[in-house]
Amino acid sequence: MKRNTSPRPVPQRTCVACRQTRAKRELVRLVCTRGGDIEIDTSGKKEGRGAYLCPDPGCWEKALRGRQLEHTLRGSLTAANRERLARQGQELIKGAE
Fold this sequence. Notes:
This protein has a single domain (12-96), classed as Hypothetical Cytosolic Protein, Chain: A (2-Layer Sandwich), CATH 3.30.1230.10. The protein is an alpha+beta fold. The longest helix has 18 residues, at 79-96. A hairpin with a 6-residue loop joins strand 1 and strand 2. The strands form 2 sheets. Strands 4-3-5 form a 3-stranded antiparallel beta sheet. It is built from 3 helices and 5 strands.
């Protein structure tokens, strides 16, 4: 007897900046922790409310400049948080190229 071995569906997520749907593994996850700090989640498994961004500098600029990220994470970004995330995002994007 043969089993139906159809491939597993690839999880899809939407970038908060450009609103494009892509495979979850192609996006960078940001998470709002219980303490209210917003961090980059490279493992994709940290506890907390998550938001996804494309590995595109334009998307990072748009998300950190506007309020989409804060709205999605239901948190607030300080100026220091924005600078830190922008710097870490640039390093992550350069490392992926």
